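FAQ
Q: What does a multi-component entry look like?
A: The components come first, one per line:
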Amino acid sequence: MSKLKLLIVDDVEDNRLVLRAICRKLENFEIKEAQDGLEAVEITQDWLPDIILMDVMMPRMDGYEASKIIKNLYPQTVIIVVSAVTDLNMQKNMSEIGVDTYIHKPIEKELLLFKLQSIGSSINLRQGKLKVLSKKNALNPFNSDIRSFKIIFDITDTESMMDFGMWLFDQCAGKDVVACGRLDLIVELFYKLMRRGTKNQENLSIIVEESYEEIYITIKFENTIVLEPRMVEILNAFESEFIVQKNILCAKLKKHIEEKNSTSEMGKTTITEEIIQETVETKITKEIYIVASKEKELLRQSFTQKTSAVDYVCDIGGDILDEILDLASLDEEWKEKLTAFEEMPSDENLKKFANGVLEVYAHTINSLFEFTALAYALTSLGVFLRDKAHVIIQDPTKTRTLIMLLENLGYDLVSWRQHIFELQDTQDIHYLDSSFFSSCMQIEGIMSNKEMDDDNDMEFF
Amino acid sequence: MAKTVIIVDDSKAVVAMAELALDEMIKSGAIEFKSYLNPLKLLEALQNESENFDLLISDINMPELSGMELAKAVKSNDRYKTKPIIILTTESSNEIKMAGKEIGVTGWMVKPFSDEKLIKSIKMVLGV
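Then the predicted structure of the entire assembly, as tokens:
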């Protein structure tokens, strides 16, 4: 399939880098950059881009002048103006010369991807190549009739895992409480697969494809997937259709929420697939269905746009009083269960902490809609502690360290709750998200005697 | 004489893990380890000169003040102008690097950090 040509025009190098990083997640785009309007016109004449992301204020020639020349010469070129300023006059002038759409700075990543996907599909449709070519490119084993664009997550490090984690929560975490349990299983499965892949330094990517009614999430490894017993257990409990074939595992999610009473009707489709488990072939037969939120847009968040605690609480305040009270009592539960584990460091008590505190905390935070990264981190840590409880308790030094770190982690959550809901003094309600996630990962590293990263993760000027 | 390393991070877990990683250096007397959970408190102590440091390691996202703002404020004081500052971050984007470079921070380190990485960077910067 010939790639769509995307030209990024911005005089600030960092902005171009950010846009390029976002757009790299899309398949079938070839990207070039221009540093100002004049260069954009020159490149357009030589290269004929399909889509242009155009900054407005630039030296030599601004975005307005450049768009005017380009639209005059090549009216089919789609121009998306990227601007930090909402100026109605400018928007009117831009519309008059044929500018197609706007993206506001700071860039909302998901929105930009969505717009590029939609425009890309529309261009391909116009050129009559969408259907045939998309069939050819389908990776998921369920359905070859997919839209031509895919979202790709290259899983290389913590950050990319978190990107995918947040995306997954956005897609699946609905207001339907029944969905929460299923979501945990999906998170746990993908988390385990991603962790193992990154630890083994294996190239792995997650490819998301869509038909009109379903989403297909495929995790692709270099080598044949070897499923650990817990993974098979999850797949057995997985209330969705899934397929494991050699080096890929694909889950199929429905885009819309099904009526609860139709659950049994939904499960009529039965699939049988070979699961490879350490050279033993196990037949797993699944029936099923799954849910993805119909209103996923509501859950989409932009972490580039900072939300202050005052604005957040003001927007959502009354609706989440119960959850806030739950969080306060969970902080107490955290201390109690941890004390119980400290007094009697048994496998059972650590599991009680993982199930009774971490898991419940993750569910409660999930229902606040905004803090999916925290929920993801808590879920992942809970899974890890449940799995490793029997090993950790064999080592008294490790057990003491774990208790100390969990105590501090609990303190961080108390402080987070106070800054957001009580003091409301932070300008960024997501200030803890990534740090908390990395702390949970680091605790796992300490407990497994594994070093976290390599030298590429630091730099001195 | 022990060099003073201050870590400022709103997360107690991060501070605890850093202290754990630096345990040997602290016990051997190579460094004196201090921590602040609130960057404003540190800034105040630095400004009234009740605190001093040989190396400051700062988180980037903190509720009261960002690590970049803290570094900028510290660097604007002649007393600390040449003192090294390392920024702790979970994302190694070019934007962050550039912003840090402009302010004059010494370097950045990505969380989660390994014990080895933390020790190595402290030794490198302090020459201990």
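Q: Is there any commentary attached?
A: Sometimes. For this entry: Chain B has one domain: 3-126.
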